[in-house]
């Protein structure tokens, strides 16, 4: 059983690779987005562009949160207004907002002074959906790898907007495990943090495309292997979360 990796292997991906090898799994780093004839693989760990090109050729199913997930979460979990709208609507905003793509990096995740600063219609399809939210300042941010609704591994990755690696506090784990499990795939990454003294969800990310920071790589691998697995092995409850 092979784990596919992209041409450029980040430090985080290398930790997942090494964890896979320690478990006896084969790992294959492709030189391009083309899949060699005869290659067989059951899993992958890569960014969305590479995954979209390679996974269908290998029969790998990719789990992710629905594009609308964050926007439909109750405010008790988000702590702020979050909307999913076509980017053409976001152009009309005349106040600072945080804007990002729901499940990839096509629209840079940034605070924009107003909608006029977003990539224009010459660069982006006006119907492209984006998440638009109030600007929130997080004093601490944590990455949680969720498996079957429980936090499998977690770590701190930022403090006051700056990289700050360390263990996750118990409160971060407890908050992530309060999330409505039925609205998420069984294997997913959710980032949570503290803003204005309260816990809030920052975003959800596909486990197969997420950096591990200082999470336990073996336990992160457990989540990756479920999140990017053979299509014929995807559980019925997860089929609605296929990319």
Q: Give the overall silhouette.
A: globular
Mean pLDDT: 96
Strand fraction: 25-35%
Major sheet strand order: 11-10-9-12-13
Helix-strand string: EHEEHEHHEHEEEEEEHEEHE
**How would you characterize the largest beta sheet?**
5 strands, antiparallel
- Counted by DSSP, the helix tally is 7
Q: Runs with pLDDT <50, length 5+?
A: none
Could you tell me the radius of gyration in angstroms? 18 Å
**Which structural class do the helices and strands define?**
alpha+beta
Beta strands, count? 14
Query: What percentage of residues falls in helices of 4 or more residues?
Result: 10-25%
Distance between the termini: 22 Å
Model description:
By secondary structure, this protein is α+β, with helices and mostly antiparallel strands. Among the domains are: 61 residues; 53 residues. The strands form 4 sheets. The chain has a 5-stranded antiparallel beta sheet with strand order 11-10-9-12-13. Helix 1 crosses helix 7. It is globular and about 55 Å long.
């Amino acid at each position: 059983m092979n784990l596919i990796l992209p041409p450029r292997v980040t430090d985080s991906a290398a930790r997942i690779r090494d964890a896979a090898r320690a478990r006896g799994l084969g790992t294959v780093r492709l030189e391009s987005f083309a899949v060699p004839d005869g290659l067989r693989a059951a899993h992958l760990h890569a960014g969305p562009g590479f995954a979209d090109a390679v996974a269908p050729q290998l029969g790998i199913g990719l789990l992710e949160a629905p594009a609308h997930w964050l926007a439909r979460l109750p405010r008790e979990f988000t702590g702020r207004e979050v909307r999913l709208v076509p980017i053409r609507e976001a152009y009309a905003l005349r106040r600072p907002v945080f804007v990002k793509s729901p499940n990839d990096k096509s629209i840079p995740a940034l605070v924009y002074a107003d909608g006029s600063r977003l990539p224009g219609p010459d660069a982006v399809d006006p119907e492209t959906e984006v998440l638009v939210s109030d600007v929130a300042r997080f004093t601490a941010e944590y990455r949680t790898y969720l498996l079957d609704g429980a936090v499998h591994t977690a770590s701190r990755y930022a403090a006051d907007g700056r990289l700050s690696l360390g263990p996750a506090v118990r409160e971060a784990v407890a908050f992530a495990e309060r999330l409505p499990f039925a609205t998420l795939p069984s294997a997913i990454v959710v980032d949570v943090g503290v803003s204005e003294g309260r816990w809030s969800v920052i975003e959800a990310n596909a486990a197969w495309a997420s950096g591990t920071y200082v999470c336990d790589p073996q336990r992160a691998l457990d989540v990756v292997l479920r999140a990017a697995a053979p299509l014929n092995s995807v559980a019925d409850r997860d089929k609605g979360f296929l990319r």
